[in-house]
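Exercise 7b. Backbone tokens:
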């Protein structure tokens, strides 16, 4: 499916517009995930499948550090403005924007400079093969472990709140 059904998109736009500007990150995540899960057939196909939306459809949000997300206040107000500008025909852009937003909600970001592109702020993930915590640059995609070693395979998954506690990030 290359586009959203207009009624699905209108429903989402109304739900987001109805939220208070100071909504908590967990409430924002819940609104987005509830809508995605209402239409699994839409989000299991392109363009959404191209952005791995299946990860979000099965996500147990209570297991992730959503409450410490920077998606609040001004960030959420900006999110609401952008959502209003899209139409259902903009499915590719919507898929990319929602993927980035959900990652902002689920991934703990830290003030760390990427050694490759020198961008600041890296996300903390977990390597599903060896269970090690890794940093990934949102700008260039470079990933390395806590000890600085480069991540060989890109089998990174979202780090659980428990993983982040154990590693001392929360």
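Sequence design result:
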């Amino acid at each position: 499916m290359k586009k959203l059904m207009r009624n699905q998109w209108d429903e989402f736009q109304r739900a987001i517009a109805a939220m208070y500007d100071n909504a908590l990150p967990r409430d924002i995540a819940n609104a987005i995930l509830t809508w995605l899960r209402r239409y699994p057939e839409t989000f299991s196909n392109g363009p959404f499948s191209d952005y791995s939306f299946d990860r979000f459809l099965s996500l147990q949000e209570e297991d992730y550090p959503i409450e410490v997300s920077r998606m609040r206040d001004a960030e959420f107000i900006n999110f609401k403005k952008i959502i209003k500008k899209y139409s259902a025909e903009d499915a590719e852009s919507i898929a990319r924007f929602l993927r980035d937003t959900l990652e902002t909600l689920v991934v703990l970001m830290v003030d760390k400079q990427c050694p490759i592109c020198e961008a600041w702020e890296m996300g903390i993930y977990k390597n599903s093969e060896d269970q090690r915590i890794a940093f990934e640059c949102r700008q260039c995609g470079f990933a390395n472990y806590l000890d600085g070693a480069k991540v060989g395979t890109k089998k990174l998954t979202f780090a659980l709140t428990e993983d982040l506690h154990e590693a001392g990030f929360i």
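Instructor comment: The first helix runs from residue 6 to 17. The chain has seven helices and five strands.
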